[in-house]
Design a protein that fits this description.
Blueprint lengths: L1 E2 L6 H12 L3 E3 H9 L3 H8 L1 H17 L4 E3 L8 H10 L3 E4 L2 H9 L12 H16 L4 E4 L5 H15 L4
Parallel strand pairs: 1-4, 2-3, 4-5
Helix pairs in contact: 1-8, 2-4, 3-4, 4-5, 6-7
This protein binds shikimate-3-phosphate.
Length: 168
């Protein structure tokens, strides 16, 4: 289960981590869109963030009950206490930690994220970082996702997972 802020590279890294592990990959945001038959932007617009988090909670609970797979979550999934507890209990979680300047550069190129649609992207991400970093930090593993290529990041995750193994 990959967590981290918008722009951390969870989907890209998740896809290639799944290939490396020989597991299926699923993007929780895509699964939410499929379940709601609406885009994330439309869910926010029509129902608001609280309803989005409820949908997200249900979808992540379902994905975690399926056979083992690599799951990338939306950056805000950890804000919901139930989802957070479930991630802790039922997954190996990896925080893709990326510094602010890199997140800003990556997210400014794409316009589909409702939380970044208004206002200053840097300011918003900085606020979210302050709020969420302590929650992301509860992950089983923290890996720098801002340095090299996605494959390098996957190398670091694989090494981290191997180091976790003896204690699990
Ligand atoms: C969100 C992150 C998005 C998506 C939604 C809300 C957040 O996912 O779930 O727009 O609260 O950080 P990504 O992190 O994949 O962009």
């Amino acid at each position: 289960m990959l967590t981290g802020l918008m722009g951390a590279g969870k989907s890209t890294v998740g896809r290639s981590l799944a290939r490396r592990l020989g597991l299926q990959f699923v993007d929780a945001d895509d699964a939410i869109e499929a379940a709601a038959k609406r885009s994330i932007s439309d869910i926010f617009k029509e129902y608001g963030e609280t309803e989005f988090r409820r949908l997200e909670r249900d979808v992540i609970a379902r994905l975690l009950s399926e056979p083992q797979q690599v799951i990338s979550t939306g950056g805000g999934a950890v804000m919901d206490p139930d989802t957070r507890a479930r991630i802790k209990r039922a997954s190996v979680s990896v925080w893709l930690r990326v510094k602010l300047s890199v997140l800003v550069a990556r997210t400014e190129r794409r316009a589909h994220r409702p939380l970044l649609a208004d206002g200053d992207v840097r300011q918003t991400l900085q606020t979210l970082m302050a709020e969420r970093d302590p929650l992301y930090a509860q992950a089983d593993l923290t890996v720098d996702g801002g340095g090299g290529s996605p494959e390098r990041t996957v190398d670091a995750i694989m090494a981290g997972l191997a180091a976790l193994e003896p204690t699990r």
